[in-house]
Specification:
Elements: E1 5-8, H1 18-25, E2 31-37, H2 49-58, E3 62-68, H3 76-81, E4 86-90, H4 97-106, E5 110-115, E6 133-137, H5 152-165, E7 171-175, H6 183-188, E8 193-196, H7 198-201, H8 206-217
The structure holds D-xylitol-5-phosphate (DX5) and zinc ion.
D-xylitol-5-phosphate binds near residues 145 and 199.
Length: about 220
């Protein structure tokens, strides 16, 4: 299954040595996952535009910006200008996901929706046909290092069906608690992009961690 990829979440990297950590994963990944948290939609604050601008200056990897912010529409243009290749927002944070998806695309960027574990997974249905990325949260958004939720794989498989039913080319990504024990279940349920924070950067050798994850994904 060579179409499976790991997207390292830099939330678990050492921000004092951010580019060093990004270089460690660069040989084995095509994309990086950037978690923006505002302290309102989620109970945590991470990083924002200046960090993304700086990363953009130093890497050609695909930059997926995951906005965990309560008013994403207000910042779409800024995150596009900062150098994101895709912008993913939470459907819980807007009344009109279609408008946001179209706005993101109007900036020449890939557009993604994400869904909180407490929101019924079917809520994504009206939006998958216009999405380039569907990001199913497999933990409660806000923090790295949490446990993969018990019903996560079931939700991934429903999302897979909803995407396939409308022949959408949306990439199905999953985010949270993915490690060598959970990765296979997520992939069997239909995930293609595996966002991994702690399982990559807590390992003294993040490159080997990614190789191991990919190996476990396809056994
Ligand atoms: C959580 C973030 C994740 C986080 C995942 O709200 O969206 O991207 O970095 O971290 P792990 O892989 O440690 O669960
Ligand atoms: Zn994320």
């Amino acid at each position: 299954m060579s179409n499976i990829e790991v997207s390292p979440s830099i939330l678990s990297a050492d921000f004092g040595y951010l580019m060093r950590d990004i270089e460690k994963v660069s040989p084995v990944c095509n994309r990086l996952h950037l978690d923006v948290m505002d302290g309102q939609y989620v109970n945590n604050i991470s990083f924002g535009l200046p960090v993304i601008r700086s990363i953009r200056m130093h890497t050609n990897k695909i930059l997926d910006t995951h906005l965990m912010v309560s008013d994403p529409e207000k910042y779409l243009q800024d995150f596009a200008d900062a150098g994101s290749d895709s912008i993913i927002f939470h459907i819980e944070c807007t009344e009109d996901p279609i408008r946001l998806l179209r706005k993101i695309k109007s900036y020449g960027k890939k557009a993604g929706i994400s869904i909180h574990p407490d929101t019924p997974i079917e809520a994504i249905e009206p939006f998958v046909s216009e999405s380039d990325i569907v990001l199913v949260m497999t933990v409660r958004p806000g923090f790295g290092g949490q446990k993969y939720l018990p019903d996560a794989s079931k939700r991934i498989s429903v999302a897979r069906q909803l995407i396939d039913n409308c022949s959408s080319s949306a990439i199905l990504a999953v985010d949270g608690g993915i490690n060598t024990s959970t990765v296979q279940s997520a992939v069997q349920a239909g995930a293609k992009v595996l966002v991994c924070g702690s399982s990559v950067f807590d390992n003294p050798n993040p490159e080997i961690a990614i190789r191991e994850l990919l190996k476990c994904a396809t056994v």
